[in-house]
Design brief:
about 20% strand; rod-shaped; single chain; alpha+beta; four-stranded antiparallel β-sheet
Length: about 140
């Protein structure tokens, strides 16, 4: 090569566009992470409320089953009805059982026990109701 030294010149790498792209992607990932965390916390709160409601319902159902067992024994033995029970004019027996957050309303009709169904009653109404309170923590726009 005729004594001339050849220099290799490198072009500088332009990182401006690449840096902006990576920064935008990182910001998007951070926003998605925050949204995922907020959703997970909301799901946990909703699951806790559902669990509390199911536990309340289970307590009321248990009280109702215990009441029916006492009522069945009283009807079969011919003794006084449980304290919660009131006999109506039409012959039905009514009771309202209150638990922590719920109320169970039970109406039964006495009947003769049979071989296939030994219970001394027939359930007419088994109604569970709970007190509902709307959540006030959300500050929603009401249109005004």
């Amino acid at each position: 090569m005729n004594g001339q030294s050849t220099e290799f010149t490198h072009r500088p790498v332009r990182t401006g566009a690449l840096t902006l792209l990576i920064t935008a992607v990182l910001i998007c990932l951070a926003v998605l992470a925050v949204l995922a965390l907020a959703t997970a916390q909301a799901d946990l709160a909703m699951a806790d409320r559902a669990l509390a409601g199911l536990q309340s319902q289970a307590q009321a159902e248990t009280s109702g089953q215990e009441y029916l067992a006492r009522l069945d024994a009283a009807l079969k033995e011919g003794t006084d009805l449980p304290a919660e029970a009131t006999r109506q004019a039409d012959g039905t027996i009514q009771a309202t059982l209150s638990e922590n957050d719920g109320t169970l309303h039970v109406v039964v009709r006495p009947r003769e026990p049979e071989e296939e169904n030994p219970a001394a009653y027939e359930i007419l109404i088994w109604q569970l109701s709970t007190q509902w309170e709307p959540e006030q923590s959300l500050d929603l726009w009401n249109g005004m």
